[in-house]
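Data availability (excerpt). The following record was deposited with the supplementary files.
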Amino acid sequence: MEKMRLGRTELMVSRSGFGALPIQRISFDEAKGILIKAYEGGINYFDTARQYSDSEEKIGYALSGVRENIIIATKSHAEDKKTLFEHLETSLKNLKTDYIDIYQLHNPIELPDPNDPDGIYAGMLEAKEKGMIRHIGITNHSIRNAILAAESGLYETVQFPLNALSSGEDLELVEVCRKLDIGVVAMKAMSGGLITNPASTFAFLRGYGNILPIWGVQRMSEIEDFIALENNPPPLDDRMWEIINRDRAELAGDFCRGCGYCLPCPVGIDIPNQARISLMMKRLPYEEFLEDSFREKMDLINSCINCGHCRDNCPYKLDTPNLLKKELKKYYEFYEANKL
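Predicted structure:
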């Protein structure tokens, strides 16, 4: 598989990376099969996080035997140095390694003070000095924070949602990082599943020579598709632009990106899916949405206690409770029109 230089880290990474958030939803043995398939297909970059339940453990379970051949990126959502080291020790144990290639601050609301001796950035520097991590990165859903982080000179990689739906403002980050020789990692490359033609967003991102997309995978067929795209990269031609422009038209405006920072919901609402159900029903096979079990999950929206957790934690500042109510109304209309 073709490789690229990840900014000033000097790491040579496969042009496609593996996003390991989804493998927390499958068994250890299922995850192992998919991870080994990715590795054997040429992928050497694996991204996970302390917050992704057992995702780190599954990477350690599957790939510890080839540790010297892969690049591991994980994340800490700590807010102080002590907690950061606790997260790091846990990650090292889970991943069955004694170092992390890229250790990332996980979507901080505000960028940390690099001069605070007890702060998380000081912790990152100390961990690097001790050889526990090799490179310092950051992830964010705020374009303001992402650009500020890049311009600060403190981070070697910046991870941000980038795909064929990205705005011109979001894509400015790519040029900022290119000029500053910072590695760009693209999360949400499929827009949380709303982009249903992987070839289109693959071709779009491939047009930028300094973007490393991490594809979220939880099925063997999905990793096979991405390996096939790597083996025969599609051109960004008129046909691809037709698909991209159609997606942009259908997905214009504010919508839930499915990032999951709204969770957990105290009444069990599956917010990342239910807050965009009207889009999913148009873009995915709809039969499962008519099942009684799915209807019962949607009905949980009526149990919302207006705690505000989802709204307060949405990086896109969506009014999530009202969005859920609107989506439930659309769902009921769809259900009544299509039920047997």
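Summary of structural features: The chain has a mean pLDDT of 94.
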